[in-house]
Automatic annotation (TrEMBL):
Keywords of the record: ATP-binding, Nucleotide-binding, Transport
Domain of life of the native organism: Bacteria
Positions of the ABC transporter domain: 5-239
GO molecular function: ATP binding; ATP hydrolysis activity; L-isoleucine transmembrane transporter activity; L-phenylalanine transmembrane transporter activity; L-valine transmembrane transporter activity
Lineage: Bacteria, Pseudomonadati, Pseudomonadota, Alphaproteobacteria, Rhodospirillales
Keyword Transport tagged: yes
PROSITE patterns cross-referenced by the UniProt entry: ABC_TRANSPORTER_2
Cellular component aspect of the GO annotation: plasma membrane
Organism encoding this protein: Oceanibaculum pacificum
Protein name: ABC transporter ATP-binding protein
Gene Ontology process terms (BP): D-alanine transmembrane transport; L-alanine transport; L-isoleucine import across plasma membrane; L-valine import across plasma membrane
Length: 259
């Protein structure tokens, strides 16, 4: 598989707090990777480091072979590093279509309005919002606002898409729909990093899982092996969870790596 993103010993300190500490991993084109860890583990900070929102205290971010450690957020977006936010905030008075076209213009996918609107229509059809393209964004339901957020990111022509709790607040059926869409996005060759607290969801969609704890990457690997990893159980999952979900452990022992 072709490498698209590599973090080398990435760190971020806020004063005395080491929010991210010496984290290294690589992502391949088109893979879906779950990023998990307790509250305050450093997940959102890591996304902010990858997308140029925060300056690195140490280490390097390499995107498509290029050192992008010092990039600004707009440069990250234009390169194809897109992200969604925990709280979805569309421009409420603009239509659904206009919101997505704005994403396309910002991301540099299309410089001209006509081309941006065409791309926006395509992405709205892809996420299933074609029929409500001319509706003001304020009138969308929560699941549809989340789809809108995805369409906006896709209009930026991303190569890597970082999804920060994209399923929060959705019911089981809505989550299934969102996961189908995430798989369809990955099938286009876009790499997906999904931050998610619902383990059932992470396990059903991720090909690989990264575990952060106190800013450190304590394990990475195959989902079954990760949920059976004693360090991950102790730091995050708890023994009760492991007993429920970890039964297939013996088949893939050794697939995690401690770092
Ligand atoms: N801008 C900031 N200034 C100071 N400290 C920060 C800042 N952003 C994050 N932190 C601290 O860095 C640590 C990691 O926070 P972060 O939000 O990245 O964790 P998280 O894993 O995303 O948590 P959650 O699951 O609750 O969203 C926390 O101790 C947090 O208080």
């Amino acid at each position: 598989m072709t490498e698209i993103l590599r973090l080398e010993n990435v760190s971020k300190a806020f004063g005395g707090i080491r929010a991210v500490n010496d984290v290294s991993f690589t992502l391949s084109e088109g893979e879906i990777v779950g990023l998990i860890g307790p509250n305050g583990a450093g997940k959102t900070t890591l996304v902010n480091l990858i997308t140029g929102v925060h300056k690195l205290t140490g280490g390097k971010v390499i995107f498509a072979g290029q050192d992008v450690s010092r990039q600004k957020p707009f440069q990250a977006a234009r390169r194809g590093l897109a992200r969604t936010f925990q709280i979805v905030q569309p421009f409420p008075a603009m239509t659904v279509l206009e919101n997505v076209a704005a994403g396309s213009l910002f991301g540099g996918g299309h410089a001209a309005m006509g081309a941006a609107l065409d791309a926006a229509r395509q992405e709205l059809d892809f996420v299933g919002l074609g029929p409500v393209a001319d509706t003001p964004a304020a009138l969308l339901s929560l699941p549809n606002r989340k789809r809108l957020e995805l369409a906006k990111s896709l209009a930026m022509k991303p190569k890597v898409l970082l999804l920060d709790e994209v399923n929060a607040g959705l019911n089981a059926a809505e989550i299934d729909g969102a996961l189908d869409l995430i798989r369809k996005i990955a099938a286009r060759g876009i790499t997906i990093v999904i931050i998610e607290h619902l383990m059932k969801v992470v396990l059903s969609v991720s090909q690989r899982i990264l575990v952060l704890h106190h800013g450190e990457l304590i394990a990475q690997g195959d989902p079954t092996a990760v949920v059976n990893d004693p360090r991950v159980i102790e730091a995050y999952l708890g023994a009760k969870f492991a007993a429920r979900f970890g039964t297939a452990a013996s088949t893939s022992q050794g697939a995690t790596s401690h770092v």
